[in-house]
Amino acid sequence: MRKRKKRKENHLRKGMVLYIAIVLMSTIGTGAAFAASDPLSVIDNLSTFIFSLIRALGLILTGFGIVQVGLSFKSHDPSQRANGFLTLAGGIVITFAKEILNLIIG
């Protein structure tokens, strides 16, 4: 029984590490920063790079929140379930931070 539980925990941990690696590889490798003569384009490229890192962090938090909610349903722990939903919601907000800021600014 303990071996089975430990095996499932190891399986979940490996899956989470794989998920984090895929998210980081897909977001960091997307934006190319080219030097330009216009200083505003340099700042715009830096902003795009920073927001891609923030999006990666948000996706990681979203994945972690999903794992927490899943584990809380397994163990019937309401406090872990609440923390999982809060982490999930926070990860979604962080993932779409740039779009939310663009909607606020107009």
Task: Describe the secondary structure blueprint for this structure.
Layout: H1 2-28, H2 39-75, H3 78-95, H4 97-105
Helix pairs in contact: 1-2, 2-3
Protein name: Glutamyl-tRNA amidotransferase
Transmembrane segments: 16-37, 49-73, 85-105
Organism: Candidatus Allocopromorpha excrementavium
Overview of this structure, please?
The chain is 86% helix and 0% strand. The protein is mostly helical. It has a domain at 39-106. The mean pLDDT is 86. The protein has helices spanning 2-28, 39-75, 78-95, 97-105. The chain crosses the membrane at residues 16-37, 49-73, 85-105. Keywords: Membrane, Transmembrane, Transmembrane helix. It comes from Candidatus Allocopromorpha excrementavium. This is Glutamyl-tRNA amidotransferase.
In short:
This protein is an all-alpha fold. The protein has helices at residues 2-28, 39-75, 78-95, 97-105.
Feature tags:
106 residues, mainly alpha, elongated, Glutamyl-tRNA amidotransferase, transmembrane, transmembrane helix
First-last Cα distance: 56 Å
Residue runs with pLDDT of under 50 for 5 or more positions: none
How big a fraction of the residues is strand?
Answer: under 5%
* Total DSSP helices: 4
Output the structural class.
Answer: mainly alpha
The total strand number stands at 0
- How confident overall, as mean pLDDT? 86
SSE ordering: HHHH
Strand count, sense and barrel status of the largest sheet are:
none
Helical coverage, percent range? over 70%
Backbone shape: elongated
Radius of gyration: 18 Å
